[in-house]
Write the C-alpha cells for this entry.
Amino acid sequence: MARNVTESVFVVWGGNQELAGLVGRKLDPIHFSGVVGGGQPTDLFVGSQVLSQIHQCTRAIILVEDTSGIDLASGYNLSDNLMFEWGYIIGTFPPSKVHVFLIDLSARDLPSDLAGSWASEVSRAGLTNDEVAERIVATFQKDARHHAEMDKLEIMHMWTQVLRYVETYNSMPQCSDVELAHYLLHSIETCYYYMEDERFGELLNSVKPVSSVLEYAVAMVKANLRLFRETGGLQRPLPYDAYMELKTFFERPYDISFQDEELHLWFRFFAVRRQALLHRTVAENPEFSAEERNVFRAETVELTTKAAGALDDIVSHFPRQSGYANLYRGYLHRDLYLLMIRRIINEFLSKLEKNTGRQHVLLSELRARFV
C-alpha cells in the first residue's frame, strides 16, 4: 500500500553521512520520503546510482559541511561530489524545491556561482548530530509545507504536459504527488474535450503511486472514467452492481487537509458530485419502480446541493479559484435542469401511454433527446 507521503526528498551530504541518515529518517514522520545519496565521501565520481536517486525525487536537501579538518585560508574544503550534485540539482529542480543548509559555514563564503542561492545557516554550537538534524528538518518542514498554488484554468490548456507527467511518474517524476493529484483531478473533464479518455485510463493503469494522496487521486479519476464508460457519457442508466461498487468508493472518507487543504476540498467536491451523478443515472433505470426512482432523484438533488456547498467552501478559503469554480457551478445547474426535464417528460409520456397507448411525434423526439 502507498504511504501517506507528500514527495520524495534527495539528501545531499558532503562528508557527514550519519547526519544525512538522521535527516532522511526524520523526514518520514512529517510525510516526506527521504532518499540519502549513496556512495562514500572518498569516491572519485558520482555514480549512476546517485543520478537515478535524484531522478526519483522532486525536492532536495543539501547539507553543506566541511568535515575535512583542513584549515584552508582561501576558503572551505567541500567535497567534489557534493559540489557536482549541488550543481546538478540546481539545474534539475526549480529553486523552490532546493533547500540548502550551511553547517558552520557562511553564505558570504559560497563560490561566486552559488552566492545567490537561498540557504539556511546552521550552527552546531556543541549540538549532537541528532539535534542538528532536528533543527534542519524543522526548518525544512516550515519552508516546504506551502500550499501547491496553481492556476486551475491553466491546467485545462496543458493536457499534453499532464500526460507527460503521468508517463514519466514511475521513472522520473516531474512534480510532487500532491501537485500531480491536482493535475489529475482537474483533467477529469479535459480528457473528454481532447477525446483521449481511453489513453488517459491506460496511462493511469501503469502508474505506481508512492503516496496515498496520489493513489486516491488516480483511483478517483479511474472511477470517473468507469462511470462515463458504463453510461455512454451519462446517456444510459447505470447498472445497479456498478452503482454499488462506485458508490462505495466515492463515499470512502478521506482527509489530506494537513497536506494540502485546497486539494482536500476539491477531493470532497468531486466525490460528492460523482455520488450525485451515480444517483441520477440509476434514477433513469427502468428496472426500478417509480417510487424507488423518485428516491434516487431526491438523493440526486440533495447531493448536487451538497456539491454546490463544497464549491462555496473552496471559494471561501481560496478566493482566487472563484472563476474556475463557476465552471463547475454550471455543471451542477445543468445536472438539476436535466433531472427536472427528464422527470417531467417521463411522467407525461407514461401518463399518455397509459391513456391512449400512443405518443406524439414531438414527445417521442423529446424522449430521444433528454431521457
